[in-house]
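Chain A, query sequence.
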Amino acid sequence: LTFTLKRMLDLIAATRDQVDALQRRVHSLEQERDARVPPPSALFTLAPRAEPAPEPQHEPAFADAPEHIGSGNSVPGDFPVLHEPVSAPSAESVGAQVRELARQGLPVRDIAERFGLSEAETELMIRLRQEPY
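Chain A, predicted structure.
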C-alpha cells in the first residue's frame, strides 16, 4: 500500500513538472508570436486621395466685427470663423440618393466616394432604411 501511494505521488509530481514545462513553452511561443506581430499603427496606412482637396476659401474673419471689443486693452485675435455651407444637402436627401444608387447595384465603395462618406457610413445609411422583407 505504501509503495502504491509513493508511486502515485511520484507520478503526480512528474505530471506537475510536465504541465509546468508545457506552460513555459506556451508562454515562450506566445511571446515569439507577439514579437513578430507589428504594432497596430503599422497595420494601417493613410493614402492620399487621387484628386486633391479643394482649396479653402479665404474670407476676412472679422469683416462685420468692430475693431475693439470690450476694454481698450483688448486686441482682436485672428481666429478662424466656421461657416456652414448654405446649400448643403440634407441628410434625408443624401440617404435617399445613397439607397437609390444601392438599388441600382452601384458598389458601396463607389457610393461612399461619390458622397464623401466612409464605407461604414454608407452601409449604415443603406441598411437603416431598408423595407422589411
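The two ends are 73 Å apart (CA to CA). Residues 2-36 form the longest helix (35 residues).
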